[in-house]
Amino acid sequence: MLKLCGQRASLTGVLAKSYCTSLTSAGLVTRKIDKVLIANRGEIAIRVMKTARKMGIKSVAVFSDADRSSLHTRYADEAYHVGEPAALKSYLDMKKIIDTAKKSDAQAIHPGYGFLSENAEFAELCAKEGIAFVGPPTKAIRDMGTKSIAKQIMSDAGVPVIIGYHGNDQSDAKLLQESKKIGFPVMLKAVYGGGGKGMRIALNEEEFAEKLESARSEARKSFGNDDMLVEKFVERPRHVEVQVFGDTHGNYVYLWERDCSVQRRHQKIIEEAPAPGLTMAQRRELGESAVRAAQAVNYVGAGTVEFIMDAMGNFYFMEMNTRLQVEHPVSEAITGTDLVEWQLKVAQGEKIPLRQQDIKLNGHALEARIYAEDTKAGFMPIAGNLEYLSFPKDARVDTGVEQGDDVSVHYDPMIAKVIVWGADRDQAIAKLDKALYKTQIGGLLTNVDFVRDVLKHEGFVQGDVYTDFIRDHEKELFYDSKPSVSARIESVISSVLLNQDTGVSKHDGPLNSRDYFRLNHVAHKIVTLKDEDVVIEFPSSDYMLVNLDGRKYKTHVYSIQRGNTTVSFGLEVEGKQWNCKAVSLASSFQVYGHEVRNWPKRTIDFSEAQVDASSSLSARAPMPGVIDKVLVEAGDTVKAGQALVVMVAMKMEYIIRAPMDNVITAVSCKPGANVAKNATLVRAISRHRTMAPPSYADLGKSCNDLFKKGYNFGFLKIESTTKSGNNGELEFKTGAAHNVSNQKLNGNLDIKYKVPSYGITITEKWNTDNVLGTTIDVQDQLARGTKLTFDSTYAPHIGKRSAKVKAEWVNPNAKVNADVSLDGGPVVNLAAVFGHGQWLIGVQSGLDVASNKLKATNFALGHQGQDYTVHTFMNNASELGCTVFHRPAKNVELGGQLGWTIGDKTTNFGLAAKYSPSADLLFRGKIDNKSNVALAATHSLNKDVKLTASTQFALTGAEGTQKFGLGLEYTP
């Protein structure tokens, strides 16, 4: 060993210090290390810094523009800027890294993993500059980095090698020829590859060319070289690797094996040590083979020898990673060691701290890599802000981020590694599952829930793991689980508590907020969970009722503790208690309780505080945003809690709701419009003061619908409605009906197109009778509250045309409709309804212009209460009638009709009812005074499809009166 001694000037040029450098036979620089530069970022940089600090060694960080305020720069003793966000211009710039080491007086560089950690040129450059490279000799890196050379060295060293081709002839024809000799399936691997890149499996000769080109292309982009090797593909292989260590004194040890078989995109997500299901003899055989591999290349420092293992337990050399692995903590956990400490000691020329016989295998360890990624979109990486971050206190967590940091688009999206130790594998699995439940990350999608699903999978629990485990169990691992009743209840309570007035004391109950509306003097609130509106009732200060699936759940909330963006609370539902935590994020809220759920923030209730003394209401924008949907128009009567406007702001959807029964007097916004904070969107007036009337045709509509809607007698019917565009601007509606009695098949197609910015709606219709129809509606363009309609039909096969112009004007106290038929006459029809309080009065008449005669004149009188309507009418002084509608319960509607003809003194009456026992089931029934009975049942097969079966018959048993109908409605 040759020693070289000298002096190096400090940065100031005034101070100087002595140093001694040793060149070992392995070609490494070893020296006393007082300061180490970590040529990496994130989690591994902090991992090295922690051990360096424990050893009294100062640490130097490097950072790119993207990492200027990253955690590793704040944790280090010193930090230096090395370039732009792109790794090639910062972390992979060897000259900048070396210059920074010199500038900072760092005696050593620890490369971490990735970046320059397996770059032989960089290790050689460090040696030339007299800087200790915390890693193996240059030759070992170079030999093990070239897979074909590595295979030959391993074969010569007696390490099992899988059959394959590692030759210089890289022509496609040669690779195909060798693949046929080996026998399909084969694995194509980039010679200079790593990290799962440049790898493809060719199952047969037919797909070989395609797989080869794909592997070559990826290798060229990743490594700048597309040379390939071919190996026999082992089916259902396990990825088993051994942690080895060597020093400059010729000592070598192994620290047992790890199983890293659970992978996605050829990258590991769960690692464990030791590998499940192996005998102690197999473990020692693996370890001894790994040591032979290290000895064959005079290895120094931490390394990992990766093997592929078949179902029979046979193992074959795959590659050697000449660096510290991401998953090294599980080896530390089962051996009680600090491998970074070993690295730094060996880099200073010390011996390995333990002999092989002193390295005991103790217990079982598991590590989960937590990534920012969308597991259901092919594990697509995600960048963005970590709005909330909380890790378990009873597990080891290696991370390079804190709450508020960003996951950068420029680097690997790993957020953290969660590591646990257990006395055995079952205990370790249980501990990791619990630790992942406590790993709370808000703001980005992560793989936490997916990893928990893997841990609970029967195959994983039994240790039946292999590299295609995730692919082969897709159906069990990739699924959309519907939230349970408990999860939905804890989520709606979380929404209430998180949206409570910030002035409420942190110990106050959920009933102290004023942000509720009232129905029948009972405080209510509506919370929207995605597509579900959940009503919460507050009958007393002690409990609330959560309405789900037609049932009311008595719910108590207690022990409320609030943080800045969090709320923790106890929950009791139907006698069962549990604890919950909710986190408010920018565009969603996350709930940790019976289940872990993330929900979009969607509900902002237009509250009673906005009602002034005159009962005039204004719905205002809560913040600047864009109007997405306008769900009401002037003259509409709306119920308490009904959605009025949907707007989008900061990627959040806000639903503005009515706080009580109201009548819309004006709509001041349109879809697509940008609105300022506090801009008036909708004006309304309390229905208890003035009720905006319906059109004359809609008087008694609630009752009439009970008799007319939901039945299909004598028909087999199918309907489909689809919408496209951001606001459903384009709508297609198709239908077909088969008349059972005459066997006639009818079909229709309707196309509706909306131009919201101009208030125009155009509808084109066609049916199988070859009748074409066009309707053009123009809303609120001539004046607010006006609507003009042009309606025409044309039957080309008989040359018949018809056309009509309609006009409507509405304000809170009146609605006037008029239409003019352009056929012959013409005929002018006029109808008006006037309202005062809860009373309505209407008149309808028509004038035949050609004969200058009035048509029939009709009158109506109505009264509407909270849950009932009464409507009386007189038609042309010859017919009197009355309808009554009553809603005794939320899911029950009743109606009655009575009519009397003055001329022949005939009386007709009927009764109808509608009952909905659950959200997806609806029953209807009606009977008249002639004993005609009709029944119907509608079942929602899912959110898009409804099936309705109807029947009609006479109780008197008259022949030919029975009818049956079937309808299928599809509205995606």
TrEMBL record:
The protein's required cofactors: biotin
UniProt cross-references to NCBIfam families, sorted A to Z: PRK08591.1 (NF006367)
Alphabetic keyword roster: ATP-binding, Biotin, Ion transport, Ligase, Membrane, Mitochondrion, Mitochondrion outer membrane, Nucleotide-binding, Porin, Transmembrane, Transmembrane beta strand, Transport
Domain called Biotin carboxylation: residue spans: 32-475
Pfam families: Biotin_carb_C, Biotin_carb_N, Biotin_lipoyl, CPSase_L_D2, Porin_3
Similarity field: Belongs to the eukaryotic mitochondrial porin family.
Protein name, as recorded: Methylcrotonoyl-CoA carboxylase subunit alpha, mitochondrial
Organism of origin: Steinernema hermaphroditum
GO terms assigned for molecular function: ATP binding; metal ion binding; methylcrotonoyl-CoA carboxylase activity; porin activity; voltage-gated monoatomic anion channel activity
PANTHER family: CARBOXYLASE:PYRUVATE/ACETYL-COA/PROPIONYL-COA CARBOXYLASE, METHYLCROTONOYL-COA CARBOXYLASE SUBUNIT ALPHA, MITOCHONDRIAL-RELATED
Residues of the Lipoyl-binding domain: 608-685
